[in-house]
Write a structure and sequence with these properties.
The protein has 174 residues and is mostly helical. The chain has one domain. 55% of the residues lie in helices and 2% in strands. The chain is built from 6 helices and 2 strands. A two-stranded antiparallel sheet has the order 1-2. Helix 1 packs antiparallel against helix 2 and helix 1 crosses helix 4. It is globular, with a radius of gyration of 15 Å. The N terminus is likely disordered.
Length: 174
Amino acid sequence: MTRHFTRANGTLDAEPARVVPFPGRTPERLVGVGFRSWLSGFETGDIASWEATWNAYEETLGTDATKPVILALSQFVRAVMTSANRDIEIYPPQCRGFCRDECLAISVIAGCQHGQRSALCACATALIGSNDIGDIITRAQDFASGLRAAGQVLSPSSVCSINCPLFMPRPKLQ
């Protein structure tokens, strides 16, 4: 299956998702922007987005904590990419909000940190469009643990419940 992502230059291969404003909290921003930038780097092969992510994490976490957290982020994003049965949308780096898929990624990590297994599984399933979420859960738990060890705990309110608008059916592309 060909996966289509929102391009770093802002062009979309699919109907754009609703923009959700950046959360004010640093942990949520780290996850959302990290997910966006790392996925963009995998897609384009341009390491500039990875360097920007590294710099943002290093500024927040410090040099020693950054390497294991970035490694865990990379493994989480790679698991999402390889497991996805649907198009994953991301917004360009300069966008001031998060799209649906970026919010789902934040919710997956928050669900791991707060032990909300059912919401975590529902978000992971919605994110990749498949029930085959084992690798994603493992990688998300590693990323969530790394963030926690670095003092970055997402808010329990960042976990999207099953009644969350993010689970609303998306229109099919013609």
